[in-house]
């Protein structure tokens, strides 16, 4: 082959080759242009050594990926990993945590999402005794109750250990509820769920999934033993007046006191009823009184006790004291 075929007008030939390559690239590029696509990706919260817990963490974030059309078309959320930077998190409200999203395909460019804003707390562990909540049937009174958890570190009575946000341990209580009403001298009920309560109300293992890492309870169920006694659920007691907070006018005295009614029927727990022999009415003020005076007062029933009526009437009969001269008016 003669080199003249190559060298003659080489500049034009080189330009023609360049234009051909550009045309080929343009055709290929038009069939596979750069593009972008939004995706929703699940968030991952690595466990760290800084003993923090994220409250109500979002489970997903939105990202935008870019690349050639044929590559982007095949990318799914499974090809992306979104990791929250928990290693630099500090306890406090409205903390910003960075999110780093990477792709398994190096041809994909990920536009990093904005930081998430969450509440962060420290992790704490608290030991609490499991209390029993039980209701007695009519005619019965609960004398004692206990929750046990054989096999745990403190089985009888049962103590449980909660691990989770430090703020959740404030005023923390653990409960187990006896099913139905107690109507026997001795009753057992195994496998009753432990519930937790703090200043925000009741919560359980379902609530624990709303923090990362999830909070935990080392004992989830207990056995309940309840002892009860049969007894009356109502009785009649006397109403008694209290000494007046201030006496009548000088030179006058109380000669009689009439309480209407003088007895009331009370009802409630038999054990509580057995402790009530009478009910003392509130003191009244007789300051300046020179004649009979009647007062209506609320009957102060003890906690857990109810009565047949709400108010009582106290009549004070007042007359001049023959042994004392009334103070003259000025």
Summarize the structure.
The chain is mostly beta strands and 330 residues long. The chain has helices spanning 4-7, 10-31, 69-72, 205-208, 270-274, and strands spanning 34-44, 52-55, 60-68, 80-84, 92-97, 99-103, 109-111, 116-136, 140-148, 159-165, 173-182, 186-193, 195-198, 201-203, 211-212, 216-217, 221-230, 234-240, 252-260, 263-268, 278-280, 293-298, 305-307, 311-320. The chain has three domains: 32-114, RNA Polymerase Alpha Subunit, Chain A, domain 2, CATH 2.170.120; 122-230, RNA Polymerase Alpha Subunit, Chain A, domain 2; 234-320, RNA Polymerase Alpha Subunit, Chain A, domain 2 (Beta Complex).
Inertia-based shape: elongated
Largest sheet: 9 strands, mixed
Number of helices: 5
Rg from alpha-carbon coordinates: 41 Å
Distance N to C terminus: 149 Å
* Beta-strand proportion: over 45%
**What's the number of structural domains?**
3
Class by alpha and beta content: mainly beta
Which class of the largest domain in CATH terms?
Mainly Beta
SSE arrangement, N to C? HHEEEHEEEEEEEEEEEHEEEEEEHEEEE
The parts where pLDDT drops under 50 for at least 5 residues are none
Number of strands: 24
Helix amount, in percent? 10-25%
Find the CATH topology of the largest domain.
RNA Polymerase Alpha Subunit, Chain A, domain 2
